[in-house]
Design brief:
By secondary structure, the chain is an alpha+beta fold. It has 2 domains: 403 residues, no CATH class; 224 residues, Trefoil (Acidic Fibroblast Growth Factor, subunit A) (Trefoil). 44% of the residues lie in helices and 11% in strands. It has 20 helices and 14 strands. The strands form 3 sheets. Strands 9-8-5-4-1-12 form a 6-stranded antiparallel beta sheet, with no helix packed on it. InterPro entries: ArnT-like_N, MIR_dom_sf, MIR_motif, PMT-like, PMT_4TMC. Pathway: Protein modification; protein glycosylation. Belongs to the glycosyltransferase 39 family.
Amino acid sequence: MLGFLKEPVVVTAKINVSLVALTVVGLISRLWGLCYPRAVVFDEVYYGQFVSLYMKRIFFVDDSGPPFGHMLLALGGYLGGFDGNFLWNRIGAEYTMNVPVWSLRLLPALAGALCVPLAYQILVELHFSHSAALGAALLILLENSLITQSRFMLLESILIFFILLAVLSYLKFNNLQRHSSFSGSWWFWLLLTGVACSCAVGVKYMGLFTYILLLATAGLHFWHMIGDQNLSNVSLLCHFLARGLALIIIPVVMYLSFFYVHLTLLYRSGPHDQIMTSAFQASLEGGLARITQGQPLEVAYGSQITLRNVLGKPMQCWLHSHANTYPIRYENGRGSSHQQQVTCYPFKDVNNWWIVKDPGMQQLVVSNPPRPVRHGHIVQLVHGITTRYLNTHDVAAPLSPHSQEVSCYIDYNISMPAQNLWRVEIVNRESDTDVWKTILSEVRFVHVNTSAVLKVSGLSGASLPEWGYRQLEVVGEKLSKGYHQSMVWNVEEHRYGKSQEQKEREVELHSPTQMDISKNLSFMAKFTELQWKILTLKNEDTEHKYSSSALDWITMDTNIAYWLHPTSGAQIHLLGNVVTWASANAAALVYTCLSLWYLIRRRRKIYDIPEDAWQLWVSAGGVCGGGWAVNYLPFFLMEKTLFLYHYLPALTFEILLIPIVLQHLGDHLCRSVLLKSMFSALIVAWFSSVYFVYCTFSPVTYGQPALSVTQLKDLRWKDSWNILIRKQ
């Protein structure tokens, strides 16, 4: 029974020594001296702020993309024990001792290092030789720009890692398709493809380009499967469902999970939540939630409310009035009603309070039981402090002469009657009998007499002159088709009025609300709002010293100075390996020209290369050439500030094309032994030049050793490069 113990248990394993060696060398190249410099380097000043907010659980919105990449950077800070206390306000600022620099930079560096073995495996899965795969990995290893970008708290190396992982996973899955469909390894690589794609998109929306490329490739491969008569309809359906699950459903679920974790971690109010709706703000701990928690849900006649404009641009503001009146005549000579001013004020103020009044009754308090206001009801809005009624009439607004002036009515006894009836329209209602609700309801106020809609007009940042205290103009918009957000309001603060006397009511308006009912948004409601803000919120794009155009990237006519030592000449630049970049461009050109030549010749029934070599050539071009195109060409359509590092994902694919073209030339164009020997010698000389350029620019890749003025001038190989030289 115990006979098996007579023989030793032996485990055998195949180890690709080249792959292990490449991984080790990649780790050394990216992790060596990772804490240097111990100072803020370029965009670390940007991403570091978000890491600190994660550590403090404070909500933020970053319009540059989804939160997964930020969470990975924050994970590094968490593992290093970072407390979030550092002022990220200046590039070059020295890190304090509480900042775990090595931990914060670790994950980007690991991702950058693992791109080296991934490049090797991608070429192997494309069925190219070990030499070609080794060459691709070494080119990635010695690419200065990829090294620089992966050694700091930045996202590009993480993005490239997930992109390459997705491509490798799909290639492995596709190679298993013919012989091992629905096996464990088949499912593993298919599912990993979807996971890697969702992670790439979750780091930056640039990952969407490669995701679309892989979806198109999978669709093309499935289209070919449909024509396979050996596959039954049931088998085809199973293949379709498996791909749909792995490449669409799982990435969508994972993408949602990134936001779920993000919103779970960031539960505290902060400066960024002001651009969100009142309902979103009220769901966060502190801030607006401290004011609005437990307010009455249903707005009733007699309610005291503040009205926040939903648009929030050019800044958040609340419907406001004060005792000052419009000038009798404006500077352009137009006249006004000289009524009390109504504006949109960007700060909380007692003059933001209004009372919802029933036109048929005089009381300004909530009855018992309260009478809720519903969609379509007619109301009057009484300014809480001055007790004047919100009014509009056929008088031109001060800054928008095509719109009506909005005022609080003053009876001057000059044949200008009050027009102060407003119909409440709940924009996001579920039925026509919906009750107007605090925070949750988005409403329009339609003027009964003129059908004008209450609206904030200062969308371009225009504000009233000095007489209006630079506050935003509020108008009655006559053309009220549609529901533009500038016409939509929501109740933010709300209490049931109890005081009929004006002096008692003023005291009541000055006092905070104190009730205890919670109104939390669902995750999907919060996700939808946050996703919309990320997609639509655009910071003012300003010209940056190191911004560039997409055309500058191909020839590397630009660089970025990442860091400069405060006293010595030590500095770090985002600069690529000139030989590698030029070779990648040449490889792309050769591939395009050869492909066109082969296509024309094949059209004439002339086959210069075997069919299997042609299929290999096309598939490699689809992955590497297609990867370059989808990650580069969209930037010509983008209206945003662009930097050289945006080109790195496309560059990575273009570098993979170099050994593909070289192997093809060696196998099919160098027919004689002499030509093959000469070609091999040229490759050795070329690769030596790649290594030479890598070594030459290493001081500005790693930031050490410090170079003299003469050495720095010698590195300015192009006049357009901005190498920093201190004045003597």
